[in-house]
């Protein structure tokens, strides 16, 4: 393990924020960096919680990390400074001033959506702030990440018979993300036409036997989607929770994902090595955002 200048262990701390998919990207980037530098990984949960914050969503996984203590986190991110008022004040302070009062590990911030090689090469005590939405941040730790994020029907409370059903040859998971996307200025929900075209493309490559649709608005999906294959709309009464949806999606052989890190990860963790993934070309409303590093090279795009 690496040693810091005080004789203690170096560590990588990653700030968790956002929903399940975002937290998975952040964990994977931090875990890979810790492995790469032979250091320990800590998770800063200070941006998560009830009320205005998103909750911690990684509790279903057996992770190689523990929560960071407050005294391990850089001063500007410590809990006493996280009230809305304090966040506004700290957000207006010059970076030069924050560096002068810095206590704790070096802060490494995400500067753009594209992969940043300098982050992957970071050493010493590091505190990662960003979303890190690229598999390139953990491409040298794929087997470890897959092992860390392995789920079972028992762990997510899914009927074993349903898990076995969706894992058959020729099954396709279709994820319809709506919810906050319907009114978001940053993101747009994928259209019914996208899902229809994506399934048509997939059918030119593989035999599609049955489609399983998962959505946070299953009634919209049931009403709007006209898919050219036998279709099952998986409701909460079938799966039980969104983590159960996530697990069932990952068990399908092929995947049509939304512009969502939730279905990105369900597809990436897919148990079928011969599976195909179809992703939307447009991820954000702003077409200038560089998403070239977002998808694995073998994913199909519509």
Quick overview of this protein structure:
This protein has helices at 20-37, 84-92, 95-100, 117-120, 142-148, 153-156, 160-166, 192-203, 218-224, 236-239, 242-251, 261-268; strands at residues 11-15, 40-44, 66-67, 106-109, 126-129, 171-176, 210-215, 231-234, 254-256, 277-279, 300-301. The protein is of the alpha/beta class and 302 residues long. Helix 9 links the parallel strand 7 and strand 8 (231-234).
Mean of pLDDT: 89
What is the second-level CATH architecture of the largest domain?
3-Layer(aba) Sandwich
Strand order of the largest sheet: 8-7-6-9-10-11
Helix amount: 25-40%
> How does the major sheet shape up?
6 strands, parallel
Number of domains: 2
Structural class based on helices, strands and sheet pairing: alpha/beta
Secondary-structure element series: EHEEHHEHEHHHEHEHEHHEHEE
Distance between the termini: 44 Å
Shape: globular
